[in-house]
Each structure stands twice: as structure tokens, then as C-alpha cells.
Input
Amino acid sequence: MAQIWPIGGGKGGSGRSFLTSSLGQLYAALGKKTLVIDLDLGAANLHTLVGVPDPPKGFYDFIHKKISRLEEAVVETPFENLFLISAAHGNFDMANLSYEQKMEILRAITKLDYDRILLDLGAGTSFNALDFFLISQSGVFIATPEPTSVENIYRLIHAIYMRRIHSCFNAPDFRALESEVGRQFGDGAANNPECMMKVIARMYLEKYQQLQDEFSAFQFKLIINQLRKQDNAALGSQMTRMIEKHLGLHIEFLGNVAYDEHVHDAICLQVSYLERYPYTKTVSDLREVAKQIVESAGKQLMPRCG
Amino acid sequence: MPKSFAQLNYYEMLDIEPDATTFDIRHAYNAALQVYQQGSLASYSFFSGDERQAILSLIEKAYSTLIHDQARKDYDEDLIRKGELGAEKVASAAVKKPVSIFDISRGSASGVVSTNNEALKSKISQSQLIGDILAQNELCGADLKKIRTELGVPIEQIAQETKIRQDHLRSIEEDHVTRLPATVFLKGFVKSYLKCLCLEPVEELSALYMNTMARLQRK
Output
């Protein structure tokens, strides 16, 4: 079965699509059959980054049942071994999938036959982004060393864990749980996964065990992108330490990727940054990160309890 | 789920082991400040102002306790009484002694050679082959190699002890006339080689070798 890495980041512009396309190219160059999927349905642009400016087909056709199997939505890219499912040319409302459509896409993705699959998720904490992120246990968070991005990453991590907890309960149970947490820990505590888990441990021991097992199986990773010279290189490890200590969640810090002006140039020229500037610090960072991701790969997980 | 921050003991708060040294404690305190300080990027938006203040004051308290010898001892005893800490894990009052910079023994190479010297010498005197080679009236690289293999000394060891590059040693042993180093160097190299194998008399043998080589080059 394919290894799936969803790549998410709270804030727009932190480099998710760039990272996805770069990792995809790196893995493809290693001879792995690699698929990059654009799941930023409302603001798709991964196709531009992998050199397919006008993809002939994509998610749109799958969602609207023009094609029955997701495999048929795959298009080739100019890079050998690298394939793409694009979200370009959608309707104006493509970003707002119904729950059934989303589940159908998730199921279809897990069935795809590729060595490595990378998902480029949208910004923000919409349910789409959260559920797509939870498709595998080895999601990658990407942040830039700016307060705005750090803030959004914490929000996203929070939201992902809350979403997972949420999906284990039906609506009335969850409301009861929320009010119980609020009663014990004060208002706003229902947003804290740690408080939430404490109450679940008392009220639903079985579900607590299950969630706890799942959380400890998560191998989420963090990458700090666009690190400039003057930035604090230890930020990533400090952040994972914070998350571990205060949220009780383990996230592995994979490394920094240096900032480079030339990324902008390469995107403007619509050429591959990796090919045009292969000997930059940024590219060697990307290679290192790509290696790290593969070395700590997790199993897959369908986003449903039980 | 882990304990909340206020329930951690001071060592856990600062992420150090109970046997941490003063230096470690100071270091950990600085690292913690970098993360929790007002304006720190790593904890941006993570806490409300009050929470941050509470954490900072806890860290301050942890640091001022642990950095103070007596206060730390009292705190450790407290933890041991509560069963949070095994008695054996607490830092002993081991004082770091200054290291004398003149005491550092510079590797064991010289010592090893001197102990091996006797063994080599006795091997040389016992070996029929080496005796024959040394009795000849010429000495070439191949002879040196035979002696070396007879003595069981690897070429790497010679390179290490004499600081002569292995490729030089090899071209000497294989009599690669064109690849040999310049005569001045060659003389020195061969002398070191002979000394390394405890072959005596060094001066005579090296002169013999140089003559042999001169003859080979003329051919």
C-alpha cells in the first residue's frame, strides 16, 4: 500500500504547495512512483508548480461523476515517475464538499496504487483540511518562523486532535462532553484536548483507550520553512517541546528549510526550482527533509472511529 | 495524558535529570526562558497572559531552588519522601576537579611501539628469511615488503607511526621507480620505515637501499 503524507500548514503562503511539489520531484527522481494530489480545492495551484499549467482532467471530473474511478483523474507531469491529481478548473463551489463526497475522495485516495502519495492541503482549519490530514498517521505540518504562522500551526494541531476526538462521538454525546469539560475546567477548556481527554478518561474509558492508542501512534512532523539567516534555528524543536509538554502530543521536528529568493524566480518562470538551482542551501535542506520523512513513516488510518 | 505544568517537579519543568550539574541547570533555565518569555516566537499565542506569567514564575522558582545548593538538597529530600525520586538518582556533591593540561597522554602510539620493539627484534633475529635478505649486498623495496610481511606489520601501522603517506609506502615497496618521491625525501622515508620495523643498522641499510635504487634508475 502507498505511503500517504498529507502536508498541512495553518497559514497561507507558508510553502505547502512548493514543498509538496519539491518532495514529489525528489521522490520521483529516486525512482518511486509518486503522486501529488492538490486538495486545496478552492485555491488549487499545485499543477502550475509541477509543470502542468492546464491539466486536462482532475478532481472536478471525479466529484461530478464524469469518471468513476479516481485513477482516471491522474495526469502525467513532465517529470518521470511524478503524477498529479489536479483540482484546477473546478466549479466555484468545489471547495465546499459534502461529507459524502469527502469520504468518497478519502476512500479513493487510500486505494490508489502508488509508492508515495503527497497531499497538498488547504490553509485554515476547515473540516476538509482536518479530515484530509487525518487520512494518515504521518502528516507533516509546515510553518514559517513568524508569529502569524506559529499561531495558525498551534490552532491547526489543536483542531486536528479535537476533530479526531469529535469524530468518536455522536452530536449529543459530544455536547454533553463539552459542557462537562466546561463545568470542570472552566469556560474555553473544551478547546483544550488535554482537558477533554481527562474527562473522556472518566466518562468513556473504552473510547479513551482507543483515542490514546491512536494519538500515540500519530507520527506527525513539523518542518520550519523559509528560515532566514537571522531567524532562530531552534524554533522548531522549541515548538515541538511546547506541544509535547503542554498538549501532551508528540510531534517530531524534521528540520529547517532555508529561505531563498530564487524560489520566487523559479515559480515566476514556471520552471522547477530543484532543477534550476540544484546546489542551493534550500535544495540540500529539502533533500534532508525528504529523507527524514521517509525514515519515520507511519501506517495508514481511515478517518472513522471503530 | 501528561501532568499539567504546575504538577511537574522542578527538574521536569526545566527538562533536566535529577543529577544535573549547576551548569546544566543554568543552561536549561536559559532555554526555558527563550521558550516561555513574553515575545518568544515558539510560544506565541500558546498561552494567555496570565498562564504565561504563572509558568514563568514557576520556572523562576524552580531555577532559584535548584541553583542554590542547600535549597536543592532540601527539595530533593522532599521529593524522595514523596517517592517521586529515587535516592540514588540525586546529584552527588561531586566537585569537578581541574584537569592538568600537562598530564594528557598524547595517544598510545609511542608506548605501544616501545613495548613491541623487543618482540620485533627477537622476531628479526630468529627469522631465517630476514637474515638472508639483510645479508645480501643490495636491498630493494620488494625486500622491505618481504621483511614487513614476515614480521606481520600492516602497512597502515607504518603509515600511522611514520606519518608517511600510504601511496608513497606502496610505491617504495613495489619499486615503482617513476613514482618514488624525490631522493632527499626517499632517504628519510626509508630510514623511518627501517626504524619502524627495528631493522638495524639503519644508516647502512638505507645507504644500501639508496644505492640499489640508483642502480635500478640507471637501467
